[in-house]
Specification:
It contains seven helices and ten strands. The radius of gyration is 19 Å and the shape is globular. By secondary structure, the chain is α/β, with parallel strands linked by helices. It starts with about 50 loop residues before the first strand and ends with a strand. It has a single domain (about 5-295), classed as Rossmann fold (3-Layer(aba) Sandwich), CATH 3.40.50.150. Mean pLDDT is about 90; it is low at about 1-15. The longest helix has 16 residues, at about 195-210.
């Protein structure tokens, strides 16, 4: 059995960015996507290249906290930024939550724009992002509103202009998993969709609304899971994947991340095992990280 990639992420040792070689006249070999020097590819053991992501727990370094329902672990943002952006480029997150992506942007030297529909949560995000050190002097912007609206589209354009950019180089989309968790009372919130079909329609509106801001041949990262309803497995991830493909993207990779420390199931492991045995189903222990290229 292969070694877990998660063992490369001890919580007490945050990711260390590899510095440039001191050799005279040394020329690194990098791509347009990132700062990884392929001449020194063995020096990047922390970067995951397998499709199965096993982490022992959340990265708790910096100002990260795991107290917000539904926020993804910082390692997802870390891996995405290191693989698919360079320092100084722009990352756009359409469902910011408590600010995980923009915190990682400051830590790794990327400019970040995040959209959060809840004013209360956006305020929390701004406070946390402001507390993170800014060693690379990057800019971050939190926008309050619906990522599928024209108003937010205009604000994203303004934020890019303030950063001296026309496009973002990475797009991260981590929507609610339909109605599993209610994130607000707002009608536009995807977690309040009236039906599964309405959820997909709202999700498509978001993808179409923000795709103009992503530079061609750059990556969109979709983080999403599935759900059960009335005894049936609902493949939200694959249906959202198809919608994204139909919006002008090419599928690059599908990664599976194990779910640890799920707040909804914490201290109830035996109960959920009994329910699974009695009901003939399997307990959710994974979610998808799906990578697309804009074509």
């Amino acid at each position: 059995m292969p070694e877990s990639q998660g063992e490369l992420f001890p919580e007490e040792e945050p990711f260390k960015i590899l510095e440039k070689s001191n050799e005279p006249n040394y020329k690194p070999r990098t791509s347009h996507l990132n700062d990884i020097d392929l001449k020194r590819w063995k020096d990047y053991p922390e970067i995951v290249t397998d499709s199965l992501w096993l982490f022992p727990g959340r990265d708790k370094s910096g100002v990260h906290e795991g107290d917000y329902w539904g926020n993804f672990i910082p390692q997802i943002a870390t891996q995405s930024l290191l693989r698919f952006t360079k320092r100084g480029e722009v990352v756009l997150d359409t469902f910011l939550g408590s600010g995980t992506t923009l915190i990682e942007c400051k830590r790794l030297g990327r400019n970040g724009i995040g959209v959060e529909i809840s004013p209360r949560v956006a305020e929390i995000a701004e406070e946390r992002i402001s507390q993170e050190t800014n060693n690379y002097d990057v800019k971050t912007k939190v926008i309050v509103g619906d990522s599928g609206s024209i108003e937010v589209k205009d604000k994203i354009g303004e934020a890019l202009a303030e950063m001296g950019q026309e496009k973002a180089q990475l797009l991260i989309i981590h929507p609610p998993y339909y109605d599993i968790i209610k994130f607000s009372d707002l009608e536009e919130d995807l977690s309040n969709a009236e039906s599964e079909e309405d959820f997909y329609n709202k999700f498509k509106e978001v993808v179409e609304n923000v795709s103009d801001f992503l530079e061609r041949d750059r990556y969109l990262v979709l983080v999403i899971g599935d759900k059960y309803e009335n005894g049936e497995w609902i493949p939200l991830g694959f249906r959202a994947m198809e919608i994204t493909l139909n919006c002008g993207y090419k599928l690059k990779s599908i990664c599976i991340k194990d779910i640890q420390e799920n707040r909804g199931k914490r201290n109830q492991l035996h109960l959920w095992r009994y329910r699974a045995l009695a009901g003939g189903f399997y307990i959710f222990k994974h979610e998808y990280i799906i990578f697309f290229i804009k074509t």
